[in-house]
Write a structure and sequence with these properties.
The chain has one domain. Helix content is about 75%, strand content about 0%. It has 14 helices and no strands. It is globular.
């Protein structure tokens, strides 16, 4: 039984990978993110090259991804904004689209187990996202080396590797959400709108709600007490972390900026006697370890819901 399940999963996995790679949607997304990604790296590289010989800067290569140009945002800001759209666009019709076309019932009529279908679709989509992100970062990194003429150090390679993992997990969350919506809603348009609505809510409105709640619990007046300000910011920050966008931005900023030592407010008294130096990679990973675990948990929860829904749904031939 186990070899049969592995063979069925392998065949379905290859089929889904092939469908993604040959789809016009994938080509459009890849062209879009490539153009914007190369533009952001080129703009940042030109600015960095002008100052690289004027001052002694550490982690020059990492600044390619975090620096923004005159009118183009940084590469990491671009990935933070468009990453959810990439994940949602690849999975919003993964199940209900095949159901509407009548191919899902024919697929399940083959000698494969039902859970193999949902597992194969999720693994194939995650693999496509990983290939897309890794290829894009390697390509723009090569362009950055050409522009500034400075190769990355081992420390920078390690931090970029962690950044790749964070970005794949981040987009994977939205892919898992879109897979879940494709099972909850029967119409592909409805699942797409639901995904976009959730993205807008977690991008814009969750920050506003967090600010309103924080002001209600710990209002900050003209001359607030230090304790009130700290509690206000703690409530606002913790509520904002409901959104995977906030979690990703905090983790990404910490790993790509070695000078970041904490993600909360720092009082002036706490800075007295502190040595100005960059944080080692291992210590930066410890700072964002909770963020990594949270992102993995979000993916597992969304996929578990999708798995249960798919196993319990009745699928009839059309």
């Amino acid at each position: 039984m186990k070899p049969f399940m592995c063979d069925g999963l392998k065949v379905l996995y290859k089929k889904e990978i092939s469908d993604h790679l040959r789809s016009k949607r994938f080509i459009i997304i890849l062209i879009l993110i490539s153009i914007i990604g190369f533009a952001s790296i080129y703009s940042a590289g030109i600015g960095i090259r002008e100052v690289v010989n004027k001052e002694n800067n550490d982690f020059i290569f990492l600044r390619l991804f975090t620096s923004s140009g005159d009118s183009i945002p940084s590469f990491v800001s671009f990935m933070s904004f468009l990453g959810p759209l990439i994940g949602l666009s690849l999975g919003f019709d993964l199940i209900n689209g095949e159901r509407a076309r009548g191919t899902l019932s024919r697929l399940l009529a083959q000698p494969i187990y039902r859970d193999t279908v949902i597992n194969g679709k999720f693994l194939a989509g995650t693999s496509i996202l990983a290939i897309m992100v890794v290829s894009l970062v390697l390509a723009v990194g090569g362009l950055g080396i050409i522009l500034i003429g400075i190769p990355p150090t081992l420390e920078e390679i390690g931090r970029l590797t962690v950044y790749l993992v964070l970005t794949i997990l981040y987009i994977g969350i939205w892919y898992a959400i879109s897979l879940m919506f494709s099972l909850i809603f029967k119409q592909t348009a409805t699942s797409a709108l639901a995904g976009i609505a959730l993205w807008l809510f977690l991008t814009i409105f969750i920050v506003l709600i967090a600010g309103i709640v924080a002001n209600g619990l710990y209002p900050v007046n003209d001359h607030p007490a230090i304790d009130t300000v700290l509690k206000h910011e703690a409530v606002k920050r913790n509520l904002s972390r409901i959104s995977p966008i906030t979690i990703y931005n905090e983790a990404m900023t910490t790993i790509l900026n070695p000078g970041v030592r904490t993600m909360g407010l720092i009082m002036t008294s706490q800075l007295e006697g502190a040595i100005a130096s960059s944080l080692p990679l291992g210590q930066s990973i410890l700072l964002i370890w909770a963020h990594i675990v949270t992102m993995i948990a979000m993916i597992m929860v969304c996929f578990a819901i999708s798995y249960i829904l798919f196993m319990r749904q009745e699928i009839r031939a059309i």
